[in-house]
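Predict structure. Chain length: 113.
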Amino acid sequence: MHEIGLLYQTAKTASRFAQEHEIERIYAIELEIGELTGVLPDVFEEYFPYVAGQFPVLKDAVLKLDMIEARGICEQCHAVYNIMKHRGICPNCGSSEKMILGGNQMLIRQIEY
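Prediction complete.
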């Protein structure tokens, strides 16, 4: 379950940010997570309170998730489509050759303090 490792890295990053900016308490962390990361949002939401509890500055912090659609552009016909919805196959021409445009990222969008 790589979600717990990612949660710890997120908590460490937020805690380090708080320390560097002399912030006493973080109220929320907003993450942008792409569909292609394989992250299960339910697991993130379930385990965040436990992980946050390991960092005093995150006590009672809230996790906000924004799931980003996996988008690709077909290298044959140049149609833009949802990779997950169409299982990696262009709905326009049937090609599996594509360039990923988004949905493979995970980043901290905002830290509320």
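Summary: The first strand starts at residue 28 and ends at 34.
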